[in-house]
Write a structure and sequence with these properties.
Helix content is 15%, strand content 37%. It is an alpha+beta fold.
């Protein structure tokens, strides 16, 4: 069964909502950003899959042109709507680069592209990025935002926890829990990062980067095209939270059918909005056989998959 990837719901959706004033509203885009309402350039790392990419956002009025310039004042992105879209104009423009593998050892297919963390840093320089736009009245708009290489460490020990009811209560609690980490997972381990800091490649070890917010995602993990694939629960809590855990509301879980496969993802969002995500799969929501009474070491979701395979045979 082909499974969907969580990946950039996280920063694509997050940048359009949480990173620019949605969710908890803790790590926001530059606001205001000169003539723009908002603008932002950030780095996202999926520490579990070992990939890295650049995301950027500009929010203007009645745009018929938008462009992004790097710290050397060279244009790296341009937006030109045509025909009916030009007449309608645009406001928020969001773009994410391809997210290439960080390590050659992760290559599985011939067309996989590798861009190591050092190569990515050399390619996209830290510093001020300029945003330019033209509106339908041919008025120019300009803003500037800063991108840094303060990369927060990957969340560690990510886990889906089922809490039995306490005395006098009859409801089970479902929680996502995690711990602070000290590396970037598949992109770079602790010692590699320490060497990069010592060499001046990174300004700060990820272990020491302040986390402004934790973004938590519970997402249904089904075949492409399945309507359930759009179902997800997303929330942010402050980086200063004493307990790194989130309880998933019963109201959300009750909307899902029995034995719904899912995965969880937690992102550490730095003060500059750079984000590092960890994920954990093989979760069974509304599990009808959590203890596997047949002694096969399976849960209800895994048994459903076995039934599908047998039907296919």
């Amino acid at each position: 069964m082909k499974k969907r990837n969580i990946t950039s719901t996280t920063v694509l959706a997050a940048a359009m909502t949480a990173l620019v004033g949605g969710s908890a509203g803790i790590a926001n885009a530059t606001e205001p950003c000169g003539d723009f309402g908002e603008c932002k350039v950030l780095i996202e790392i999926n520490a579990e899959d070992g990939d890295i990419g650049l995301h950027f956002l500009m929010d203007g009025d009645l745009l018929i042109y938008g462009a992004l310039f790097n710290p050397k004042h060279r244009k790296i992105f341009a937006y030109y709507p045509r025909r009916e879209l030009r007449r309608q104009t645009s406001t928020e423009l969001f773009q994410e680069s391809a997210e290439h593998l960080c390590d050659p050892s992760l290559v599985e297919e011939e067309d996989d592209i590798v861009v190591t963390l050092e190569e990515f840093i050399d390619r996209f320089k830290a510093g001020p990025y300029h945003v330019w736009g033209i509106n339908s009245d041919w008025e120019g708009q300009h803003g500037v935002t800063s991108m840094t290489y303060h990369l927060p460490a990957k969340p560690a020990e990510l886990e889906w926890v089922v809490e039995p009811p306490d005395d006098g209560e009859d409801e089970v609690e479902f929680e996502i829990v995690w711990e602070e980490g000290d590396d970037l997972g598949e992109c770079a381990d602790y010692d590699e990062l320490a060497a990069m800091v010592a060499a001046g490649v990174l300004p700060q070890h990820p272990e020491d980067v302040t986390v402004a917010a934790w973004e938590v995602v519970l997402e249904v993990d089904v075949e492409d095209g399945d309507p359930l694939g759009a179902m997800q629960y997303v929330v942010r809590i402050p980086g200063t939270a004493e307990e790194l855990e989130v309880e998933v509301p019963d109201d959300f879980l009750e909307t899902l059918p029995p034995n719904t496969p899912a995965k969880i993802e937690v992102g550490a969002i730095g003060e500059g909005d750079n984000a590092t995500f960890a994920e954990e799969g093989d979760i069974c929501l509304n599990d009808t056989d959590p203890d596997d009474e047949n002694g096969n070491g399976l849960n209800g979701c895994e048994e459903d998959e076995m039934d599908e395979e047998e039907d296919g045979d």
